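Incident log, entry 3
Record: DUF2867 domain-containing protein (156 residues)
Problem: checksum mismatch between cached and fresh output.
Input:
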Amino acid sequence: MQIDSLPHLDEHATLIAADTDRVWPHLTDVVEKSFSRLGMTEYARLVSAADPVTSGPRPLVAGSTFPGFRVDTAIPGRELVLRGSHRFSTYALIFHLETAEPGRSRLRAETRATFPGLTGGLYRQILLTSGGHVLGVRRMLATIRRRSEQGPPAGN
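Fresh output:
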């Protein structure tokens, strides 16, 4: 299924007091670590995720995986497109990074997903009414913003 054909679920954004080149390594690091936390591999296997484990080159490039996601597109300083599927959903998480003004960036996280069948519908209901999805995305954006504004990622 093409990402563009997935229904739009939501979008969240933040302004960051750093240029896009400074934000990019924090974006890739925070996103990967968020979905590679303890228990994520087990959860990905439990729901029969297409990509249940970490594999591929680092830093992230097209084809790299971590639990629940495969990198579809990685354009440094511009866009990170993740796709995934499991028995209840087919989904994409798309990060758009752009210059807002000199020295400031705008980072948007767009979620697209489909939830086929009765079990998919139940999963969607749980995902959206629990608030977990919104909280998780907003937490990632806030962490990326904070780290980007503090300086370069560790090891750079």
